[in-house]
TrEMBL record:
GO terms for biological process: carbohydrate metabolic process. Residues 13-152, 183-285, 294-406 form the Alpha-D-phosphohexomutase alpha/beta/alpha domain. NCBIfam families: PRK07564.1-1 (NF005737). InterPro entries: A-D-PHexomutase_a/b/a-I (IPR005844), A-D-PHexomutase_a/b/a-I/II/III (IPR016055), A-D-PHexomutase_a/b/a-II (IPR005845), A-D-PHexomutase_a/b/a-III (IPR005846), A-D-PHexomutase_C_sf (IPR036900), A-D-PHexomutase_CS (IPR016066), Alpha-D-phosphohexomutase_SF (IPR005841), PGM (IPR045244). GO terms for molecular function: magnesium ion binding; phosphoglucomutase activity. Gene3D superfamilies: Alpha-D-Glucose-1,6-Bisphosphate, subunit A, domain 3 (3.40.120.10), Alpha-D-phosphohexomutase, C-terminal domain (3.30.310.50). Belongs to the phosphohexose mutase family. The lineage of its organism: Bacteria, Pseudomonadati, Pseudomonadota, Alphaproteobacteria, Rhodobacterales. This is phosphoglucomutase (alpha-D-glucose-1,6-bisphosphate-dependent).
Length: 540
């Protein structure tokens, strides 16, 4: 029986950089999830007759939310939902399923790299038929619907058994429970030279992949161990847990410290990698060598042709604006179109769909290609393994060769987390107000050459997205970007991105190489006094 439950709008259901993210407790609160899901149906023009993909990263509330969404889809007339076994799907695997099954869209339950569990975060993200995150026109429509929702519809029925593979029905709707790993693993096998990687594995090469107790454990086991012949011990923290073992499943040197300790130690394996809560981010590290996401993107752009799926070459490349310009140097040398978009994977969708870009990446540890419409953690790991298998060089040697050819963009991001929202917003607003007066003025030890509030005109559909971050160029080529995070759930997070190009000295500590830009940022923005913070919380 279909129940119609009266409700009233709940404030703040505005999707951010990547879906709606809130505390798990808030999502569990009465009508919170239901209001938002009903608003998704409204925002996408109704779900009647449609086919959706559904799955999440296994964090607390994943299974309960899956059951609720299934019943709500059935009540609103959806034709079919393809759901990952036990409600699980990594974000790239969900994107792939939407595409290969020709679904109308999908819902991914994740707060990505944010901690999970009863005290952590939960999230709901809608992806469209191309497999990518919904564009702003759709997320705005969902938000608008959430401000006007008066009732929701839900089937009054028992929970489904999500552990059993196969097809069943819920009311008039078909539900197909699928193996979350199989199709994705097959796709990877088509893109990369598994024979070459297997040969590398048997040549004494050692690796460690850290699944951070999140979704990629089962994927890494199937691909790295079962299909590529790595030993079982190559995958650490491989069992997904609802609270990620109490960890912060963000693959960077700060949060993946267990892996970093190993990679910087005496008995380090040749190669290390990690992925985040929902499997779309990656960290790449060689023995004693951390590779920044911006450098990793540039290395992949320069070498992707060694992988069979990219042997035909790249149509173009794209990065988010705050990502370093290391990619641009490769693009220039190889005569490839290169795009800079606002932060957020959804901005790559049109470029990928239109065949203008093959590879995309972000400084926030996301890299991917046109094989799906999300960034893809294990894809990046396999791409690196394919490159190492083809070149038979160490990660450190690959980096040295890359910098020798293209120069090095020293790069760092400083994050000030959980700061006062009003103080952070006024810091940005005050900078924005000065932008047109900054050119030619000194900023600490540097002189400003150009200053802008980044605005993006999508080259495919002409849509304009303004106010995407303050970008300041300095004489001599250094660059500074400041923006507020769109994914946090506590107060505000100020991100300060800095880079400086160097053509000869590749062995500096990035913080030392960037000391002038760091001083210029302080001189321009007054971070210490305005936010009351002496040092950033996270330096990557
Ligand atoms: C998510 C998105 C990324 C984006 C990142 C930025 O991970 O999927 O595309 O780069 O958020 O987060 P921020 O906190 O900087 O807004
Ligand atoms: Zn993620």
């Amino acid at each position: 029986m279909i129940q119609t439950i009266p409700t009233t709008p709940i404030e703040g259901q505005k999707p951010g950089t990547s879906g709606l993210r809130k505390k798990t407790a808030q999502f569990r609160a009465l009508r919170y999830l239901e209001n938002f899901v009903q608003s998704i149906w409204t925002g996408i023009g109704g779900v009647a007759g449609k086919t959706l993909v559904l799955g999440g990263d296994g964090r607390a509330f994943n299974v309960d939310a899956t059951q609720t969404i299934l019943k709500m889809a059935a009540a609103s007339g959806a034709a079919k939902v393809i759901v990952g076994q036990n409600g699980l799907l990594s974000t790239p695997a969900a994107s792939n399923l939407i595409r290969t099954r020709g679904a109308d869209g999908g819902i991914i339950l994740s707060a990505s790299h944010n901690p999970g569990g009863d005290d952590g975060d939960f999230g709901v993200k809608y992806n469209t038929a191309n497999g990518g995150p919904a564009p702003e026109s759709v997320t705005n429509a969902i938000f608008k619907a959430s401000e006007a929702v008066t009732e929701y519809h839900i089937l009054d029925s028992a929970d489904l058994d999500l552990g059993a593979l196969g097809t069943t029905t819920l009311g008039d709707m078909t539900v197909e429970v699928v193996d979350p790993v199989a199709d994705y693993a097959t796709l990877m096998e088509q893109l990369f030279d598994f024979d070459a990687i297997r040969a590398l594995m048997t040549s004494g090469f050692t690796l460690r992949f850290d699944a951070m107790h999140a979704i990629t454990g089962p994927y890494a086991r199937e691909i790295l161990v079962n299909r590529l012949g790595a030993p079982e011990s190559a995958v650490m923290n491989a069992t997904p847990l609802p609270d990620f073992g109490g960890g912060h499943p963000d693959p960077n040197p700060v949060w993946a410290h267990e892996l970093m300790g190993l990679m910087m130690g005496d008995d380090a394996p040749d190669f290390g990698a990690a992925s985040d809560g929902d499997g779309d981010r990656n960290m790449i590290v060689g023995r004693g060598t951390y590779v920044t996401p911006s450098d990793s993107l540039a290395v992949i752009a320069a070498n992707a042709h060694v992988a069979p799926g990219y042997a035909r070459g790249l149509a173009g490349v794209a990065r988010s604006m705050p990502t370093s310009a290391a990619l641009d140097r490769v693009a220039q040398a190889r005569d490839l179109p290169c795009y800079a978009t606002p932060t957020g994977w959804k901005f790559f969708g049109n470029l990928l769909d239109a065949g203008r870009a093959t590879l995309c990446g972000e400084e926030s540890a996301g890299t991917g290609s046109d094989h799906v419409r999300e960034k893809d953690g294990l894809w990046a790991v396999l791409m690196w393994l394919n490159i190492l298998a083809a070149k038979r060089l160490s990660v450190a040697e690959v980096m040295a060769a890359h910098w020798a050819e293209f120069g090095r963009n020293y790069y760092s991001r400083h994050d000030y987390e959980g700061v006062d929202k009003t103080a952070a917003e006024s810091l940005i607003a005050d900078l924005r107000a000065q932008l047109d007066k900054l050119a030619d003025l000194p900023a600490g030890p540097l002189v400003v050459s150009e200053a802008e509030d980044f605005s993006y005109t999508d080259p495919v559909d002409g849509s304009v997205t303004a106010a995407q971050g303050i970008q300041i160029m300095f004489e001599g080529g250094a660059r500074l970007v400041l923006r507020l995070s769109g994914t946090g759930t506590d107060g505000a997070t100020l991100r300060v991105y800095m880079e400086n190009f160097e053509s000869a000295d590749f062995g500096m500590d990035p913080q030392a190489a960037l000391v002038d830009v760091i001083a210029a940022a302080e001189a321009l923005a007054g971070i210490k006094t305005r936010l009351g913070r002496e040092t950033p919380d996270v330096v990557t």
